[in-house]
Design goal:
Helices cover 71% and strands 7% of the residues. It has 412 residues and is an alpha+beta fold. A four-stranded antiparallel sheet has the order 2-3-1-4. Helix 6 crosses helix 10 and helix 11 runs antiparallel to helix 13.
């Protein structure tokens, strides 16, 4: 009797509790007591389990392809951060270009100066130097690492310099058109205004770089030409100083002129001697040998002959002070002086020529298209990327099934 009464009391309590507790409260209490059982008994879990089972039964392992495709669609539709593009186009030209087209077989393997400069600039824009310059100007690495962008799109916070340069190269596209010689640069970033600033910085840095190429070459040539002018001028002054010193030591302005005057004087002395000897013979014809006039004429002839000997010794002798030896030394100094003057003139002419050529070799960027603010994002190309991933997953799936079939056949 007591047991029956207890049972009846419990049933009454249970009935009272069911009457008092709402269905939501009952579910909450069940979730607290047995979470696993609550989830396993839920309609959503049961429905999902049934759906997975039916999908697996109908599609088999192909369901993984669909699941991966669904994840790709979710990523590109919702998660992927948009990337904005700003582009610039320019041509590299020299100040004065006299390029002639090369025709036929001679054109093979040759490139015009503009083409070479454009290709050099193309490599520079994609180089580590450009990445460093843009990072210093616009903090490019920090922009790529912002946590506002999705994890798959942004640069990792602990990335190395090499990883940063590689990431930069993937987000900049540089193409060269052989026909028009136009260099097209396309930069990507996660903000439209930042892309515009980035493109402007690329243009300005490229212009400084290409100008520095021409200026450095021109400055080196000018520096060399100026050094040659200075060297030739110093040599000319040294030769002039030696010539003046020689003239001062020998008390001669020009030994050649002095020699000519001395030769003329010798000729006059010889003529006078001949004339005096002729007069002496005339006197000896009708006067005695001891006559005063004959003695006087003989003394005069002796004086002239002695003077002639002295003058000849001045012109040619074994002495180093002879005019012929002095004239040889003077000619050597004069020749060196003339050579130094010619070298100085040639150096000046070369300097002017190099200055004109240096101006012709100066390079400039002619902008065809200036950077503009992007109105909408260009990357990622969502539909294209989803379709590409879907095709790739199908191909991977088919290859996997083929490999699995081959392995299964070999096992059997």
């Amino acid at each position: 009797m007591v047991n029956k009464q207890n049972t009846q009391l419990k049933k009454a309590e249970a009935i009272s509790e069911t009457e008092v507790i709402t269905p939501l409260q009952r579910k909450v209490r069940k979730l607290k007591r047995n979470p696993k059982g609550f989830i396993a008994d839920s309609k959503a879990y049961v429905g999902a389990k049934r759906t997975v089972y039916l999908t697996h039964a109908k599609l088999g392992s192909f369901a993984l392809v669909l699941l991966a495709s669904l994840l790709v669609i979710i990523y590109y539709s919702v998660i992927a951060s948009p990337r904005y593009v700003s582009q610039v186009q320019f041509v590299v030209k020299q100040a004065t270009s006299n390029e002639l087209p090369v025709i036929g077989l001679a054109a093979m393997g040759t490139a015009s100066p503009s083409t070479r400069d454009a290709l050099i600039l193309q490599e520079y824009i994609q180089s580590n130097e450009m990445a460093q310059a843009l990072d210093e100007q616009l903090e490019l690495k920090s922009h790529y690492q912002q946590t506002s962008w999705d994890m798959l799109s942004r640069l990792t916070a602990d990335s190395t310099q090499e990883e940063f340069v590689e990431f930069y190269q993937k987000h900049i596209k540089v193409t060269y058109n052989d026909m028009s010689e136009i260099l097209h640069v396309e930069v990507q970033s996660f903000d439209a205004e930042y892309s515009l600033k980035l493109a402007q910085a690329v243009l300005a840095t490229s212009e400084r770089f290409i100008n520095s190429l021409g200026e450095n070459m021109a400055n080196q040539q000018m520096k060399y030409a100026q050094s040659e002018v200075q060297r030739a001028y110093k040599e000319l002054k040294r030769q002039q100083v030696q010539l003046l010193k020689f003239q001062d030591e020998n008390i001669l302005f020009n030994p050649e002129i002095q020699s000519a005057a001395l030769v003329e004087a010798i000729n006059q002395l010889e003529s006078s001697i001949i004339s005096q000897k002729t007069e002496l013979k005339s006197l000896e014809a009708y006067m005695r040998s001891d006559a005063a006039q004959i003695k006087s004429k003989q003394f005069e002839i002796q004086a002239l002959e002695q003077q002639l000997s002295e003058e000849k010794l001045k012109l040619t002798s074994q002495d180093q002070d002879a005019l012929n030896k002095v004239n040889v030394d003077f000619k050597d100094l004069e020749l060196n002086n003339l050579l130094a003057a010619d070298l100085y003139k040639s150096a000046l002419a070369s300097l002017e020529l190099i200055r004109a050529e240096a101006f012709k070799k100066l390079k400039h960027l002619l902008v065809v298209e200036h950077p503009r603010l992007a109105q909408q994002d260009k990357y990622p190309q969502r539909l294209y990327s989803i379709f590409t991933w879907f095709i790739s997953l199908i191909l991977i799936y088919l290859v996997g099934r083929l490999i699995a079939s081959v392995i299964k056949e070999h096992k059997e």
